[in-house]
Amino acid sequence: MKRKPPYSPAEVARLKELDRTVVWHPFTQMKEYSSEGAPIIAAGEGCYLTDIEGKRYLDGVSSLWVTVHGHRVPAIDQAIIEQLHQIAHSTLLGLGNVPAILLAEKLVAITPPGLEHVFYSDNGSTGVEIALKIAFQYWQNTGHPEKKRFLSFYNAYHGDTLGAVGVGGIELFHHIYGPLVVHSLKAPSAYCYRCPYGHPGKDTCNRECFAAVAQLVEAHAPELAAVIVEPVIQAAAGMLVWPEGFLGHLRQLCDTYGVLLIADEVATGFGRTGKMFACEHEGVSPDLLVVAKGITGGYLPLAATLATRKIYEAFYADYAELKTFFHGHTYTGNPLACAAALANLRLFEEEAVLNRLQPKIKLLQTLLEDFRELAAVGDVRQAGFMVGIELVCDKKTREPYPLARRTGHRVIRKAREKGVIIRPLGDVVVLMPPLAISDEELRTLCAVVAASIEEAVA
Ligand SMILES: *Cc1c(COP(=O)(O)O)cnc(C)c1O
Which residues are recorded with the post-translational modification N6-(pyridoxal phosphate)lysine (predicted)? Predict the structure, then answer.
């Protein structure tokens, strides 16, 4: 088969048929998918993807929130090739490998102060599982076996493995697996547009959600191992931005009541909110930090769970004490992925990516103002380069569209026709462009999405 698009019509037909009949796509109703003829991506460059028929699309969601400097970045390509010339994989179970060591050093240097030890895995969900298990075992190892519950938030998303589902709070994704999981205590989330306390908007906010989580932590502290949160923004929830000060508030609560704080920065890490890590917005250092998605610049699957020295030391003992963290994945610390991550982080420094991002965030903010005028747009939420545009059927009453109308999905299909790839969260249209996107591409992205919204609701 030919390697470069456009593929021949026969090849296109064969791949499309196989894609809709043999591949079972994630988070996808295959009955819907199989009738839609979604593009099959064969190549990419910069912020563009090219399908097998040779059609180009702007990558408006960073290939599901992972791409940072764009596709086919010479420095990352080269780093992977050089690592390939050494070795593709060797295990971290009982052996070291060079890129995993150097990356651990780098991660400790760039993450919030106090995080000194790096435990690798290969996706965000397992990174979260690791944080939960470490938090649980930390209390076992230090003589507090009663501290075994977790507190998380409604609308939270921490991944799809069962531990992560237990701390998840998105009814649509998580409800069916209820009987399979250990449920966390749930505190209210700050869905300010639909404020559970009836005080939508900054002006009327009474910060009831601050008080609610305080009450829960205080009441349950003796049995709580940790609080887990997506700092600054609950992403998969539909890009729900926490009120300012919420993360600092949680840090303080955890300190006061002797509970660990787990920051899930799988989505927010590596520049997405405008700082390297979202925790920096409030000067917070968590006890455990989970990173994944953007860590390799969107090249290869890799995750890391970072822990403080205090936590690490609770596991550091003679073997017979059985304080070992008995957990690991076969591809833990994969050298190719770690080499890609090192190259990704070098680019952040060499190209001053975060400095150059700031004016683009401002431009995006300006462009988003126009969306508020659209009849179907109820709310526009932004944290840096993470954006959620919530569509509603009635702007006044904030009534959502019926589920079966698939409004968000209609929008992304319109956008696709116009050469832009995005993916919604229900009826929230998500924009999460690569940090490398140009001003002009950013304008195109917003213009196409606005037109697509208008067409999809017409
Ligand atoms: C995507 C995501 C995860 C899960 O990561 P996977 O790599 O998809 O397993 C966990 N937490 C947050 C906040 C995420 O956005």
Answer: 293
pLDDT band with cut points at 50, 70 and 90 for residue 3: confident
Residue in 67, 153, 158 to alter for ligand 1 test, most ligand atoms within 8 A of Cβ: 158
- Using CA atoms, how far apart are residues 89 and 100, in angstroms rounded to an integer? 11
> Same structural domain for residues 175 and 81?
yes
| Residue percentage of the chain with pLDDT more than 70 | 100
Which tens digit of pLDDT belongs to each residue from 149-184? 999 999 999 999 999 999 999 988 888 999 999 999
Report the DSSP beta bridge partners of residue 391: 377
- Residue 145: how many other CB atoms lie within 10 Å: 10
Spatial distance between the Cα atoms of 174 and 1, rounded to a whole number of angstroms: 40
When pLDDT is averaged across residues 54-79 and rounded to a whole number, the result is 98
Q: Write the residue with the smallest CA distance to atom 11 of ligand 1.
A: 158
Give the residue numbers spanning the domain of 313. 77-350
Q: How confident is the model at residue 1 (pLDDT cuts 50, 70, 90)?
A: low
Q: Which residue from 368, 364, 350 is spatially nearest to 274, judged by alpha carbons?
A: 364
Q: Read off the pLDDT band of 2 (50, 70, 90).
A: low
Q: Is residue 4 part of a domain?
A: no
Clarify whether residues 103 and 245 are in a common domain: yes
The annotation places the binding site for pyridoxal 5'-phosphate at 124-125, 264, 329-330
Contacts of 304 (CB under 8 A, 6+ apart): 103, 104, 107, 118, 119, 120, 121, 127, 290, 291, 292, 295
Same domain, 200 and 165: yes
- CA 230 to centroid of ligand 1, rounded, Å: 10
**Which of 309, 332, 350 is the C-terminal boundary of a domain?**
350
| pLDDT beyond 60 at 213 | yes
CATH number at residue 447: 3.90.1150.10
> Ligand 1 within 6 A of 124 CB?
yes
For residue 423, being part of any structural domain is answered with yes
Find residue 227's DSSP bridge partners: 151, 261
Q: Is the pLDDT of residue 190 over 80?
A: yes
Residue 97 predicted with pLDDT over 80: yes
- Closest atom, ligand 1, to C-alpha of 303: 7
Q: Say if residue 420 is in the same domain as residue 336.
A: no
What total of structural domains would you count in the chain? 2
The tokens for 312 are 């690490």
Residue 392 scores a pLDDT above 80: yes
Please tell me the distance between residue 162's alpha carbon and the centre of ligand 1 in angstroms. Answer: 13
pLDDT of residue 212 exceeding 90: yes
